[in-house]
Design a protein that fits this description.
Elements: H1 3-12, E1 19-24, E2 26-29, E3 37-42, E4 44-46, E5 48-49, E6 52-53, E7 61-70, E8 73-80, H2 84-92, H3 112-120, E9 134-138, E10 141-145, E11 150-154, E12 161-166, E13 175-176, E14 181-182, E15 188-194, E16 202-208, E17 226-232, E18 246-247, E19 251-256, E20 259-261, H4 263-267, H5 269-272, E21 280-282, E22 287-294, E23 305-308, E24 311-321, E25 324-332, H6 336-340, H7 343-346, H8 350-357, E26 364-371, E27 394-397, E28 403-406, E29 408-412, E30 414-418, E31 430-437, E32 442-449, E33 454-458, E34 463-465, E35 469-472, E36 482-490, E37 498-503, E38 509-514, E39 524-529
Parallel strand pairs: 23-28
Antiparallel strand pairs: 1-8, 2-38, 3-7, 3-39, 4-7, 5-6, 7-8, 9-10, 10-11, 11-12, 13-15, 14-15, 15-16, 16-17, 18-19, 19-22, 20-21, 22-23, 24-25, 25-26, 26-29, 27-28, 30-31, 31-32, 32-33, 34-36, 35-36, 36-37, 37-38
Length: 530
């Protein structure tokens, strides 16, 4: 098999192994003495069970790993999430639970009537609890999460799985994001989709107070969940897929995009042999709606703000300035990104993969601006309502009273964005992410200056860094005073994986912590201060 295809498979589809006990890393450089805590990371790490294999990278069993900083030393450990899905699959020694791109039948020898009964209990709510995307916090509890109705609580120190919670036991949701927001008081904001609610299908925004945990009585923080508001679907049978949302000091920004979930197809998917991933459809002729919600009152702005169709997974940040809401997104021309991560595409020969990868859409970082304090009664049609300097984004008033928005491009080719979270919801200057090039597979991490529109990079041959995580130094005054952490795996088997530590100002390496064990490619995570 050609080298570039081997690389793609080695990066993404190699079965991971647990390192259940802490392994002390070998250090080069110096870890800042103030850096005390744990970097928790989550992602798919097991892609074949027995003789069965998953079809898509997003299907793999969740493997959680951590880098703990203590007194200038670094310790690594990893454990598979002991979800119900993991237990069922390992007990059967094959895949028996359906995932995003892989359909599974618990008992393939069943007759059609038995399969029909199985279908009835495998419709919308309960495909899997394999939480592979992120680590999130509710109250003082930490959970492995994805975009389903289940989350699994974990011990952030030992990485043990404590137990599963179901959103639907506390609030009417079938799906929820793995990218919540946290305010300055420690409250958690999140949103999800209620497909089967008694009051009709809708998007739901909710809050979990910072004091919601009850460790003494082992009661989940979700029991204190507070409903903020509900928003009806733009298309009743085709709810928008969303991976994240934006939040400012006063508002929540929800992007209702043209990548949609076909509910009718989903409810019949199991009996027709169709995976969940095949129930997503992108309507390039539709529009993208921007909903602005007061996060304290739950009131949704009455003006229709919209733009052309695009696909979006990650918000970068959002803030308010002079009567405007500014929000930065990473967008794509279509949803071909999902297709790239099917194993059949990764296993193509180098020449075929190189050709096919050219059709995969690349990410573009875009800035949109919405005016929130403007009287539209006397505004002529065609007026640009944006009065901010330093942006070419527009919000043009239309004859029907709606506002058509166009964006300002900040950067191209960057994904998995992160910021100094102290600036979340506030005016900011810098963001960080991975620079993407599909073929041959090369990744860099970068720091983008939103004012100068310039960037600086870190890269190393044969290396593949993960999402960069910013950790601020104590008493920091400057926005970029701190370090960047990134878990790095290598295409060279002779080079051990390592945790990279960069000076966030200069993007120069100040330390690396190499671990003599297997480390897998991950998705998202967070840093927990000691």
């Amino acid at each position: 098999m050609a080298e570039s295809t081997q690389n793609m498979e080695a990066i993404f589809y190699r079965n991971g192994k647990e390192t259940p006990e802490p392994v002390k890393a070998e250090l080069s450089g110096t870890i800042p003495s103030w850096l005390q805590g744990t970097l928790l990371r989550n992602g798919p790490g097991l892609f074949s069970i027995g003789e069965s294999s998953y079809n898509h990278w997003f299907d793999g069993m969740a493997l959680i790993h951590s880098f703990t900083f203590k007194d200038g030393e670094v310790y690594y450990r990893s454990k598979f999430l002991r979800s119900g899905t993991y237990k069922k699959n390992t007990a059967a020694n094959r895949i028996v639970v359906t995932e995003f791109g892989t359909l599974a039948y618990p008992e393939p020898s069943k007759n059609i009537f038995s399969k029909a009964f199985t279908y009835l209990i495998n419709t919308i709510p309960d495909f899997t609890d394999n939480n592979i995307i992120n680590i999130i916090r509710y109250g003082e509890d930490y959970y492995a999460s994805s975009e389903i109705n289940y989350i699994n609580q974990i011990n952030p120190s030992s990485l043990d799985t404590i137990g599963r919670s179901n959103y639907r036991d506390y609030i009417a949701l079938n799906l929820a994001t793995a990218h919540p927001h946290y305010d300055d008081e420690g409250n958690t904001y999140n949103m999800g989709t209620a497909i089967m609610a008694l009051t009709g299908p809708k998007y739901v925004i909710f809050r979990v107070p910072s004091i919601a945990s009850d460790k003494e009585n082992k009661r989940p923080a979700l029991r204190k969940v507070e409903h903020i508001c509900s928003i009806p679907f733009h298309s009743t049978l085709y709810p928008s897929y969303f991976h994240s949302f934006g939040m400012t000091e006063n508002y929540i920004i929800f992007v209702e995009q043209a990548l949609k979930l076909d509910i009718i197809r989903l409810t019949t998917a199991y009996i027709k042999g169709v995976s969940w991933g095949k129930c997503l459809k992108y309507d390039k002729d539709d529009i993208t709606l921007f909903h602005v919600i007061n996060r304290r009152t739950g009131k949704v702005a009455g003006t229709k703000f919209y733009t052309d169709a695009f696909v979006m997974f990650h918000h970068i940040n959002a803030y308010e300035e002079d009567g405007h809401v500014v929000f930065d997104l990473i967008t794509y021309e279509d949803n071909s990104l999902y297709d790239m991560f099917y194993l059949k595409n990764m296993r193509q020969d180098a020449e075929t993969f190189d050709k096919s990868s050219k059709v995969f859409s690349l990410p573009v970082c875009q800035r949109f601006v919405i005016p929130i304090d403007v009287d539209l009664k006397e505004v002529p049609s065609g007026t640009n309502l944006i009065k901010l300097e330093g942006t070419s984004a527009k919000a043009v008033f239309q004859n029907d009273g709606s506002v058509y928005c166009t964006s300002d491009t900040l950067h191209q080719g960057l994904e998995l964005p992160g910021i100094n979270y102290k600036y979340n919801g506030k005016k900011y200057r810098y963001f960080y992410g991975t620079k993407i090039k599909w073929s041959p597979p090369k990744n860099k991490i970068a720091k983008v200056d939103t004012i100068t529109r310039t960037h600086i990079e870190w890269m190393e041959d044969e290396c593949y860094p993960s999402e960069p995580v910013f950790v601020a130094s104590p008493g920091a005054v400057d926005e970029d005073d701190g370090v960047i952490l990134s878990s790095v795996i290598s295409l060279n088997p002779k080079k051990t994986p390592f945790l990279l530590v960069l000076d966030a100002k200069t993007f120069k390496e100040i330390a690396r912590a190499s671990v003599n064990t297997t480390v897998h490619m991950d998705l998202h995570g967070l840093f927990i201060h000691q």
